[in-house]
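Recall that a protein's primary structure is simply its ordered list of amino acids. Everything else, from secondary elements to tertiary packing, is in principle encoded there. The following example makes that idea concrete.
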Amino acid sequence: MRSLPENALSSAWRGEELFDRPGWRQQLSIAESAELRDFVARFAGQDPESIRPGEILLPELEPLASRISDALENGPGAVRLQGFPLDAWDQPGRELAFWALAHQLGTPVSQSAEGRRLFHVRDAGYATNDPRFRGPMSSKRLSFHTDRCDVIAFLCIQPAAEGGETFVVSSAALYDELSRRDPAALETLRGPYPYLRHTVDQGNQRPYGELPVFSERDGFFGAHFLRVLIDRADASPDAPDLTDEQRRALDALEALAEEPEMHVSFHLEPGDVLLLNNWTTFHRRSEFVDAPEPERKRHLLRIWLSTHNSRPIDPRFADHFGATEAGALRGGMRPLTEA
């Protein structure tokens, strides 16, 4: 039986154990909110992505950022930060404040072929066969997955009228449970799986990559999973077919993640910031229904972060993430301008 690396035990929570873990719940203080207000006032009207990192100096936020970073990398791998003062700003101001907060935790990386690093999560109404279609830009249920970054950060602007729950599961706990229940599936999940290039990943010239779901490097645990791209690779003539054992292992992993005792679910409220370590958690969203009024439609801001205190990852991620060393700048989609 394969056991978890010792340093992964702190991230191996099950279900609602998360809510009692140190670091899970954080709160913006009055002084921290005031510092964000000052920042927004100073850069009002400016595109957040045009601001140089050296201009984002927020000393009041440094202790909070340190606590969050530690909880993400060395603790439960999930943090819910509350008290983000949405009512203090219009939408451009909120984007500036979220950008500034994210910069205290790492470096934002590209989420599109255009190189945009601040992403709006809302239903764009694209058909599933539209090349612009992405799961987050629909109202559909998403399956458990990770994103192409060390940490994903969401700011809830407006929840859905119905549905849209967030689900989070510890991938370290999934590994630990599979090691007891289904060691053959776990061993298969440690091997390479083909991932077809995403439809919007146009800066990437390779048609597919091969990545493990579970891996370890220098004693550090890592998990990466996006079944939609695995299934697309399986259906594509440009990538290897999955074996029956590979499919069975994926099914076993997803079934385990869906067990109520393994995951948590909750609704994000306006002003909530959710941060997840993609190497130790999977997340998904339930289907939702929007209100008819444009201002009441579900809307989140999302930033992908390469974090300062990241772990080393398996060398097989080099093609997908770039650098694999601890603390390296990595992840995101390669913009077309760099292709």
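DSSP finds eight helices and 16 strands in the chain. The helical segments are 30-42, 62-74, 91-103, 171-181, 183-189, 227-235, 244-257, 318-321.
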